[in-house]
Design brief:
- The chain has 278 residues and is an alpha+beta fold.
- It has 2 domains: 118 residues, no CATH class; 148 residues, no CATH class.
- The chain has 2 helices and 18 strands.
- Strand 7 and strand 8 form a beta hairpin.
- Helix 1 runs antiparallel to helix 2.
- The relative contact order is 0.20.
- It comes from Lysinibacillus halotolerans.
Length: 278
Protein backbone atom coordinates (compact mmCIF):
# COMPACT_ATOMS: atom_id res chain seq x y z
CA UNK A 1 0.00 0.00 0.00
CA UNK A 2 2.71 2.47 0.95
CA UNK A 3 4.62 1.73 -2.24
CA UNK A 4 1.72 3.33 -4.07
CA UNK A 5 2.15 6.53 -2.06
CA UNK A 6 5.75 6.87 -3.20
CA UNK A 7 4.91 6.07 -6.83
CA UNK A 8 2.16 8.68 -6.96
CA UNK A 9 4.30 11.25 -5.14
CA UNK A 10 7.13 10.94 -7.68
CA UNK A 11 4.60 11.48 -10.47
CA UNK A 12 3.27 14.64 -8.82
CA UNK A 13 6.75 16.07 -8.18
CA UNK A 14 7.83 15.40 -11.78
CA UNK A 15 4.72 17.04 -13.25
CA UNK A 16 5.12 20.02 -10.94
CA UNK A 17 8.70 20.57 -12.11
CA UNK A 18 7.61 20.17 -15.72
CA UNK A 19 4.90 22.77 -15.15
CA UNK A 20 7.47 25.20 -13.74
CA UNK A 21 9.67 24.77 -16.83
CA UNK A 22 6.78 25.32 -19.22
CA UNK A 23 5.49 28.40 -17.38
CA UNK A 24 9.00 29.88 -17.43
CA UNK A 25 9.11 29.34 -21.19
CA UNK A 26 5.73 31.03 -21.62
CA UNK A 27 6.79 33.96 -19.44
CA UNK A 28 9.74 34.54 -21.79
CA UNK A 29 7.80 34.13 -25.03
CA UNK A 30 8.52 37.79 -25.86
CA UNK A 31 12.10 37.91 -24.56
CA UNK A 32 14.58 38.49 -27.41
CA UNK A 33 16.91 35.57 -28.01
CA UNK A 34 15.33 33.36 -25.34
CA UNK A 35 15.84 29.63 -25.84
CA UNK A 36 13.10 27.36 -24.51
CA UNK A 37 13.83 24.52 -22.09
CA UNK A 38 12.62 20.97 -22.71
CA UNK A 39 12.22 18.30 -20.04
CA UNK A 40 12.28 14.52 -20.26
CA UNK A 41 10.49 12.32 -17.72
CA UNK A 42 11.68 8.76 -17.23
CA UNK A 43 10.51 5.92 -15.02
CA UNK A 44 12.74 4.41 -12.38
CA UNK A 45 13.89 0.84 -13.12
CA UNK A 46 11.14 -1.70 -12.46
CA UNK A 47 11.47 -4.05 -9.51
CA UNK A 48 10.94 -7.74 -10.26
CA UNK A 49 8.84 -9.32 -7.52
CA UNK A 50 9.15 -13.01 -6.73
CA UNK A 51 7.59 -15.29 -4.13
CA UNK A 52 10.26 -17.30 -2.34
CA UNK A 53 9.16 -20.64 -0.88
CA UNK A 54 10.24 -24.17 -0.10
CA UNK A 55 9.33 -27.18 -2.21
CA UNK A 56 9.38 -30.59 -0.50
CA UNK A 57 10.49 -33.67 -2.39
CA UNK A 58 8.94 -36.91 -1.09
CA UNK A 59 12.11 -38.90 -0.55
CA UNK A 60 13.50 -40.91 2.34
CA UNK A 61 15.69 -38.02 3.43
CA UNK A 62 12.87 -35.49 3.09
CA UNK A 63 14.69 -33.24 0.67
CA UNK A 64 13.43 -29.76 0.03
CA UNK A 65 14.78 -26.80 -1.92
CA UNK A 66 14.06 -23.10 -2.14
CA UNK A 67 12.62 -21.64 -5.31
CA UNK A 68 11.46 -18.22 -6.44
CA UNK A 69 8.25 -17.94 -8.40
CA UNK A 70 8.04 -14.72 -10.43
CA UNK A 71 5.05 -12.56 -9.55
CA UNK A 72 5.66 -9.66 -11.88
CA UNK A 73 7.30 -6.26 -12.04
CA UNK A 74 6.55 -3.22 -9.89
CA UNK A 75 7.08 0.28 -11.20
CA UNK A 76 8.77 2.50 -8.62
CA UNK A 77 7.69 5.85 -10.05
CA UNK A 78 9.10 8.48 -12.40
CA UNK A 79 11.55 11.34 -12.21
CA UNK A 80 12.53 14.36 -14.29
CA UNK A 81 15.61 12.95 -15.98
CA UNK A 82 17.08 16.14 -17.45
CA UNK A 83 16.34 19.57 -18.80
CA UNK A 84 17.70 20.41 -22.24
CA UNK A 85 17.65 23.64 -24.17
CA UNK A 86 16.07 24.14 -27.57
CA UNK A 87 18.60 26.12 -29.59
CA UNK A 88 16.71 26.44 -32.84
CA UNK A 89 16.64 29.85 -34.52
CA UNK A 90 13.94 32.24 -33.34
CA UNK A 91 12.03 34.52 -35.69
CA UNK A 92 13.73 37.76 -36.82
CA UNK A 93 11.85 41.06 -36.50
CA UNK A 94 12.72 44.69 -37.13
CA UNK A 95 13.14 47.25 -34.32
CA UNK A 96 14.63 50.28 -36.17
CA UNK A 97 17.18 50.66 -33.33
CA UNK A 98 20.76 50.79 -34.66
CA UNK A 99 22.16 49.16 -31.54
CA UNK A 100 19.96 46.07 -31.96
CA UNK A 101 21.63 43.14 -33.69
CA UNK A 102 20.14 39.81 -34.75
CA UNK A 103 22.47 36.81 -34.94
CA UNK A 104 21.37 34.50 -37.75
CA UNK A 105 22.49 30.89 -37.98
CA UNK A 106 23.84 29.52 -41.21
CA UNK A 107 25.41 26.09 -41.49
CA UNK A 108 26.09 24.49 -38.10
CA UNK A 109 27.99 21.20 -37.66
CA UNK A 110 26.56 18.33 -35.63
CA UNK A 111 28.57 16.99 -32.69
CA UNK A 112 29.39 13.34 -33.40
CA UNK A 113 29.25 12.21 -29.77
CA UNK A 114 26.05 13.92 -28.60
CA UNK A 115 24.26 14.34 -31.92
CA UNK A 116 23.56 17.95 -30.90
CA UNK A 117 23.72 20.71 -33.51
CA UNK A 118 26.19 23.43 -32.58
CA UNK A 119 25.18 27.05 -32.13
CA UNK A 120 26.67 30.53 -31.82
CA UNK A 121 26.43 33.31 -29.23
CA UNK A 122 27.37 36.93 -28.71
CA UNK A 123 30.34 37.37 -26.35
CA UNK A 124 29.88 39.34 -23.12
CA UNK A 125 32.24 40.30 -20.32
CA UNK A 126 30.97 38.75 -17.08
CA UNK A 127 31.43 40.82 -13.87
CA UNK A 128 32.70 37.73 -12.00
CA UNK A 129 35.44 37.22 -14.56
CA UNK A 130 35.56 35.34 -17.83
CA UNK A 131 32.88 35.51 -20.45
CA UNK A 132 29.14 35.03 -20.67
CA UNK A 133 27.18 34.29 -23.83
CA UNK A 134 23.78 35.31 -25.11
CA UNK A 135 21.55 35.30 -28.18
CA UNK A 136 19.85 38.51 -27.08
CA UNK A 137 21.21 41.28 -29.30
CA UNK A 138 19.23 44.05 -27.58
CA UNK A 139 22.30 46.25 -27.05
CA UNK A 140 22.73 49.91 -26.17
CA UNK A 141 25.51 52.43 -25.42
CA UNK A 142 26.33 53.33 -21.81
CA UNK A 143 27.45 56.76 -20.59
CA UNK A 144 31.02 56.18 -21.78
CA UNK A 145 30.04 54.96 -25.20
CA UNK A 146 30.63 51.26 -24.57
CA UNK A 147 28.33 48.77 -26.22
CA UNK A 148 26.48 46.87 -23.46
CA UNK A 149 23.55 44.49 -23.17
CA UNK A 150 20.32 45.14 -21.26
CA UNK A 151 21.97 44.11 -17.95
CA UNK A 152 24.92 46.45 -18.47
CA UNK A 153 27.45 43.73 -19.40
CA UNK A 154 30.07 44.83 -21.90
CA UNK A 155 29.78 43.40 -25.40
CA UNK A 156 33.14 42.03 -26.55
CA UNK A 157 34.79 42.22 -29.93
CA UNK A 158 36.25 39.30 -31.86
CA UNK A 159 39.55 40.02 -30.09
CA UNK A 160 37.93 39.95 -26.63
CA UNK A 161 37.98 43.71 -26.03
CA UNK A 162 35.22 46.11 -25.05
CA UNK A 163 33.64 47.99 -27.94
CA UNK A 164 33.57 51.78 -27.52
CA UNK A 165 31.76 53.93 -30.07
CA UNK A 166 31.46 57.70 -30.38
CA UNK A 167 27.68 57.47 -30.90
CA UNK A 168 24.96 55.14 -32.11
CA UNK A 169 25.50 56.47 -35.62
CA UNK A 170 27.34 53.39 -36.85
CA UNK A 171 26.67 50.62 -39.32
CA UNK A 172 27.13 46.89 -39.02
CA UNK A 173 27.88 44.59 -41.93
CA UNK A 174 26.50 41.09 -42.20
CA UNK A 175 29.92 39.65 -41.35
CA UNK A 176 30.05 41.54 -38.03
CA UNK A 177 32.27 44.51 -38.87
CA UNK A 178 31.30 47.79 -37.18
CA UNK A 179 31.83 50.90 -39.31
CA UNK A 180 32.08 54.48 -38.07
CA UNK A 181 32.45 57.11 -40.81
CA UNK A 182 33.40 54.39 -43.25
CA UNK A 183 36.18 52.93 -41.08
CA UNK A 184 36.12 49.51 -39.38
CA UNK A 185 36.50 50.12 -35.64
CA UNK A 186 35.72 46.62 -34.33
CA UNK A 187 34.26 43.25 -35.20
CA UNK A 188 31.40 42.04 -33.05
CA UNK A 189 32.50 38.99 -31.05
CA UNK A 190 30.73 35.69 -31.75
CA UNK A 191 31.59 32.37 -30.09
CA UNK A 192 30.77 28.84 -31.17
CA UNK A 193 29.65 25.91 -28.99
CA UNK A 194 29.71 22.48 -30.61
CA UNK A 195 27.45 21.09 -27.87
CA UNK A 196 25.37 23.83 -26.17
CA UNK A 197 23.74 21.28 -23.83
CA UNK A 198 26.89 21.36 -21.66
CA UNK A 199 26.52 25.10 -21.07
CA UNK A 200 25.08 26.39 -17.81
CA UNK A 201 21.96 28.46 -18.34
CA UNK A 202 21.65 31.49 -16.05
CA UNK A 203 19.16 34.31 -15.56
CA UNK A 204 18.52 37.00 -18.17
CA UNK A 205 19.27 34.71 -21.10
CA UNK A 206 22.94 34.24 -20.24
CA UNK A 207 24.99 31.09 -20.75
CA UNK A 208 28.35 30.16 -19.25
CA UNK A 209 30.67 27.21 -19.47
CA UNK A 210 30.69 25.00 -16.37
CA UNK A 211 34.46 25.22 -15.90
CA UNK A 212 34.68 28.91 -16.77
CA UNK A 213 36.64 28.26 -19.96
CA UNK A 214 36.02 30.51 -22.95
CA UNK A 215 34.27 29.18 -26.03
CA UNK A 216 36.22 29.35 -29.27
CA UNK A 217 35.55 32.13 -31.74
CA UNK A 218 33.00 31.34 -34.43
CA UNK A 219 35.08 33.22 -37.01
CA UNK A 220 37.11 30.80 -39.06
CA UNK A 221 35.43 27.71 -37.63
CA UNK A 222 35.14 24.90 -40.15
CA UNK A 223 31.59 24.32 -41.47
CA UNK A 224 30.23 27.26 -39.43
CA UNK A 225 28.48 30.09 -41.26
CA UNK A 226 26.39 32.92 -39.86
CA UNK A 227 25.38 36.49 -40.48
CA UNK A 228 24.15 39.53 -38.55
CA UNK A 229 21.43 42.06 -39.23
CA UNK A 230 21.46 45.53 -37.72
CA UNK A 231 18.24 47.08 -36.38
CA UNK A 232 16.72 43.60 -36.03
CA UNK A 233 16.33 41.20 -33.11
CA UNK A 234 15.95 37.45 -32.83
CA UNK A 235 12.75 36.61 -31.01
CA UNK A 236 12.15 33.79 -28.56
CA UNK A 237 11.80 30.30 -30.03
CA UNK A 238 9.00 29.43 -27.60
CA UNK A 239 5.94 27.96 -29.33
CA UNK A 240 3.15 29.49 -27.23
CA UNK A 241 0.40 27.25 -28.59
CA UNK A 242 2.38 24.05 -28.03
CA UNK A 243 3.49 25.27 -24.59
CA UNK A 244 -0.13 25.83 -23.56
CA UNK A 245 -1.03 22.31 -24.71
CA UNK A 246 1.92 20.84 -22.79
CA UNK A 247 0.96 22.86 -19.71
CA UNK A 248 -2.60 21.51 -19.73
CA UNK A 249 -1.29 17.95 -20.24
CA UNK A 250 1.07 18.30 -17.29
CA UNK A 251 -1.71 19.74 -15.14
CA UNK A 252 -4.07 16.87 -15.99
CA UNK A 253 -1.35 14.33 -15.20
CA UNK A 254 -0.71 16.04 -11.85
CA UNK A 255 -4.45 16.05 -11.13
CA UNK A 256 -4.76 12.35 -11.97
CA UNK A 257 -1.92 11.49 -9.58
CA UNK A 258 -3.56 13.65 -6.94
CA UNK A 259 -6.83 11.70 -7.20
CA UNK A 260 -4.96 8.40 -6.86
CA UNK A 261 -3.21 9.76 -3.78
CA UNK A 262 -6.58 10.72 -2.28
CA UNK A 263 -7.89 7.21 -2.99
CA UNK A 264 -4.88 5.70 -1.18
CA UNK A 265 -5.46 8.04 1.73
CA UNK A 266 -9.10 6.99 2.05
CA UNK A 267 -8.12 3.31 1.90
CA UNK A 268 -5.55 3.77 4.66
CA UNK A 269 -8.03 5.73 6.74
CA UNK A 270 -10.56 2.91 6.45
CA UNK A 271 -7.95 0.26 7.25
CA UNK A 272 -6.83 2.08 10.39
CA UNK A 273 -10.14 3.35 11.77
CA UNK A 274 -12.60 0.62 10.72
CA UNK A 275 -10.87 -2.68 9.94
CA UNK A 276 -8.39 -2.21 12.74
CA UNK A 277 -11.23 -1.75 15.25
CA UNK A 278 -12.75 -5.12 14.30
Amino acid sequence: MFKGFYTVATGMVSQQRKTEIITNNMANANTPGFKADQSTIRSFPDMLLSAVGNTNIPTENGLKFTEANPIGSLNTGVYLQETLGNYTQGSIYETSQKTDVALINGAMPVDEQSGQTGTIFFRLEHPDGGEAYTRNGNFTLDGQGYLVNSQGLYVLSATGERIQLPSDDFSLSQDGNIYVEGEVVATLGVSFSENPDVLEKQDNGLFRTVDGAELPSAYGQENVTFSMQQSFLEGSNVDSAQSMTDLLTAYRAFEANQKVLQAYDKSMDKAVNEIGRV
